[in-house]
Amino acid sequence: MRASSKKQDILLLAANLFAERGFEAVSMRDLGKALQMTPANLYHHFTDKEQLYRETLVDVFSRVAQVLPKPAKEERPQSYLEHLVSGIIAFMLRDTVFTRLMFRELSSDNHERTAFFVEKALRPVYDSIAKALSLLIRKSAVTSTLDMLVSSIIGYVNMSRFFSLLHRDASYETDCEAITARIMAGLSLHVASLDMK
Amino acid sequence: MRASSKKQDILLLAANLFAERGFEAVSMRDLGKALQMTPANLYHHFTDKEQLYRETLVDVFSRVAQVLPKPAKEERPQSYLEHLVSGIIAFMLRDTVFTRLMFRELSSDNHERTAFFVEKALRPVYDSIAKALSLLIRKSAVTSTLDMLVSSIIGYVNMSRFFSLLHRDASYETDCEAITARIMAGLSLHVASLDMK
DNA sequence: GACAAGTAAACGATCGTTCGGTAAGTTTCC
DNA sequence: GGAAACTTACCGAACGATCGTTTACTTGTC
Description:
Two copies of one chain form a homodimer.
Chain A: H1 2-21, H2 28-35, H3 39-45, H4 49-67, H5 77-94, H6 96-107, H7 111-134, H8 142-166, H9 176-196
Helix pairs in contact in A: 1-4, 1-6, 2-3, 4-6, 4-7, 5-7, 5-9, 7-8, 8-9
The first copy, chain A, binds a DNA duplex through helix 1 and helix 3.
């Protein structure tokens, strides 16, 4: 459909602008100018700015669920978990539009949006890791391990922009695989310590 | 001084509003109304909105450096590190104004503010942990361990609001000390694994 | 001819900011 | 000691710009 393609163009550009500047700092005129159309025309496709933003979030946040790898045939749980975590981290570092919008919503105070955002953006990540973890460790330890794991991932993705500024040692370079390796190393130590009990 | 006390009143209230709604969503009229003064009067104390915001950040972010515990006499490095980490986490969970402003700046795109923010809010935390860590593990492992540790802390504080929404198991409750314990457990496993090499 | 996609122009509201003025305190100077 | 000069802290009113949005009208397409 022509219509939905045009709408998709709008959502794609809106995602970039909202990710870069935030909801309040992007005006309908900004969007119109960037799309080479009258701001009035945006109201032909969306009822108002809030709905445009909401649809943008739906559009962007749905990406993460599609990118989560399935376990390969007879893949060991530990190996699958590693693929999952490294896949999530790589996706978040790559898709800066997704990540910036996510962190903006994490800081937002709009309670209506929050619940929606949690289900759309966080839930798929959280549940997929939960499932993978539950094959690996005893059930009673899943939630706390999961929370730590998700915290590490979110924290690392959030902070990654700033580490190079913080390092006194300029030679130290961060890269995605090294991060994942470190997170996974921490996890496997944790798993091992659970086994010993 | 009367003047600086009035200015401090403004900064205190501005911090709350900016933390809650963000820079763009708070108008000078909002501030004026909440302070029961004319917005024009704000320009007697500050040159413009940007400077008011900047001073607010300085004011709020300087809190963290004051709250970092010093090592007690003859305190073991491991024990001091634990105090440090738990102190930082407790502070961040308690001072929601600080934390919200911090995460807003973490998502911001204003490069001028970013460098300033990194030095004021992140640097004290980062360096204090770095120093404590360097007493505990070999130098070459400090940076990577540090980054993971800071990521975990920042990630956990950021996500803590959402875990209760994500948990299928409603009975599971998160509390600050349990979190710290888990982060420290992960760290001591890591330290132990370094020792073994 | 009907319906989608687009425009120009304007609506009232709100934005950051400025201006001219006032009332109260502080300093200076005879 | 007291008038004059100056400073500080505020106000009401307005500035031009921009905001989200609406209205009435045109264009293109099936």
